[in-house]
């Protein structure tokens, strides 16, 4: 199942709310949201730097580009998220399996 790694930065208002209410309750909300997307929240962590507030790992089969567009519009439109970055990940075994089927590549001549 495809795995995703997402870094997110909360808006100041959302960060203040999370600070008051705590992070553990936020995990339950994220688990329900990801489940509604047809996936599973594998884990999430608070990030100790100024660029990102949270990192999450999830797996989902049906995160098509159009679903990702709507996910972004929904979460950014709520005002809770200032920015995020999502990476689709592969295990080393998956990457090695697909490596065997890659076509040849001819770089431009110098």
Structure description:
It is a single chain. The protein has 110 residues and is α+β, with helices and mostly antiparallel strands. The chain has one domain: Alpha-Beta Plaits (2-Layer Sandwich), CATH 3.30.70.260. It has four helices and four strands, in the order E-H-H-E-E-H-E-H. It has helices spanning 12-21, 24-36, 65-77, 92-99, and strands spanning 3-10, 39-46, 54-60, 81-89. Strand 2 (39-46) and strand 3 (54-60) form a beta hairpin. The model has no long low-confidence stretch (mean pLDDT 93).
Q: Please tell me the overall pLDDT.
A: 93
Largest sheet: 4 strands, antiparallel
Please identify, by name, the CATH architecture.
2-Layer Sandwich
Identify the CATH class: Alpha Beta
Order of helices and strands: EHHEEHEH
Task: Report the CATH topology name.
Answer: Alpha-Beta Plaits
Count the E strands.
4
Amino-to-carboxy terminus distance: 41 Å
Report the radius of gyration as a whole number of Å. Answer: 17 Å
Total number of domains: 1
Alpha plus pi helix count:
4
**Residues in helices, as a percent range:** 40-55%
Question: What topology emerges from the helices and strands here?
Answer:
Blueprint: E1 3-10, H1 12-21, H2 24-36, E2 39-46, E3 54-60, H3 65-77, E4 81-89, H4 92-99
Antiparallel strand pairs: 1-3, 1-4, 2-3
């Amino acid at each position: 199942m495809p795995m995703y790694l997402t870094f997110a930065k909360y808006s100041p208002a959302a960060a203040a709310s999370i600070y008051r209410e705590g992070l553990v309750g936020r995990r339950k909300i994220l688990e329900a949201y990801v489940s509604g997307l047809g996936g599973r929240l594998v884990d999430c962590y608070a990030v100790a730097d100024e660029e990102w507030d949270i990192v999450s790992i999830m797996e989902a089969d049906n995160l098509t580009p159009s679903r990702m567009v709507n996910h972004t519009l929904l979460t950014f439109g709520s005002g809770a998220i200032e920015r995020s970055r999502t990476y689709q990940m592969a295990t080393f075994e998956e990457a090695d399996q697909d490596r065997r089927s890659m076509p040849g590549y001819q770089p431009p001549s110098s």
